[in-house]
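Propose amino acids for all 207 sites.
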C-alpha cells in the first residue's frame, strides 16, 4: 500500500512539474511573439500575445510594461505613417501613399483623415490607369465589404480571451467558435477553444 501511494505521489509530482514547465514555455513563447509583433508595429497582435502572457502569469512585469507602452507606440506609428503618406502623395507616388494611409487606418480604424485620403488616392490611381480617350465618368463603385476583416476577427478573439480570463467559459467557447468560423486557421482561437472545453469538462464533472 505504501509503495502504491508513494508511486502515485511521485507521478503526481512529475505531472505537476511537467505542467509548470509547459506553462513557463508558453509564457516565454507568447512574450517573445508579442515583442516581435510590437517591433513590427502589429500592435493588435502584440496586445493579444501580452494578454495571453498575463492570463498565464498575472504578475508578469514585462508583459504589463509592454501593454502600457502600446498606446504610445500606436500614436507614434500613426504620426510616422501619416507623414510618410502625405509626402508620398505630394510626390504622386500613389501606391506608397495608399500603403501608408492603410497602415494608419489599421492602427486607428476611426481616422477620418486616412479614410478620406484612401478614397482620394484610389481615385488618383484609377485616373492614372484609365485610357486617355474621353469616356462618360462611371459611377464610383463601392468596394465589396468583407463579412469580417482581420481586425474584426482579432477584436472578437480578444473578447473571447477576456471571457476566458474572467472564467466565463460558456461565453468564451461561443466566441472562439465564431472566430474559427471566420478564420478556421486562427491558432490562438484553436488553442483557447481546447482549453475552454477542458475547463468546462472539469466544471461539469467530466474530468
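Proposal:
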Amino acid at each position: 500500500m505504501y509503495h502504491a501511494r508513494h508511486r502515485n505521489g511521485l507521478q503526481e509530482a512529475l505531472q505537476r512539474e511537467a505542467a509548470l514547465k509547459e506553462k513557463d514555455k508558453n509564457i516565454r513563447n507568447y512574450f517573445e511573439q508579442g515583442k516581435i509583433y510590437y517591433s513590427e508595429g502589429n500592435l493588435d497582435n502584440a496586445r493579444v500575445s501580452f494578454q495571453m502572457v498575463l492570463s498565464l502569469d498575472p504578475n508578469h512585469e514585462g508583459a504589463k510594461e509592454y501593454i502600457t507602452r502600446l498606446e504610445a507606440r500606436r500614436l507614434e506609428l500613426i504620426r510616422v505613417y501619416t507623414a510618410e503618406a502625405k509626402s508620398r502623395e505630394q510626390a504622386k507616388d500613389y501606391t506608397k501613399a495608399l500603403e501608408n494611409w492603410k497602415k494608419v487606418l489599421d492602427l486607428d480604424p476611426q481616422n477620418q483623415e486616412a479614410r478620406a485620403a484612401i478614397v482620394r488616392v484610389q481615385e488618383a490611381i484609377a485616373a492614372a490607369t484609365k485610357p486617355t480617350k474621353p469616356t462618360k465618368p462611371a459611377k464610383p463603385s463601392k468596394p465589396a465589404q468583407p463579412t469580417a476583416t482581420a481586425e474584426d476577427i482579432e477584436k472578437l478573439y480578444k473578447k473571447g480571451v477576456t471571457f476566458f480570463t474572467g472564467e466565463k467559459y460558456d461565453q468564451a467557447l461561443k466566441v472562439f467558435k465564431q472566430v474559427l468560423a471566420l478564420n478556421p486557421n486562427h491558432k490562438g482561437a484553436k488553442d483557447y477553444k481546447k482549453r475552454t472545453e477542458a475547463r468546462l469538462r472539469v466544471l461539469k464533472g467530466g474530468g
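Helices lie at 2-40, 43-56, 61-90, 94-107, 112-129, 150-165, 169-182, 187-203. The chain has a mean pLDDT of 85.
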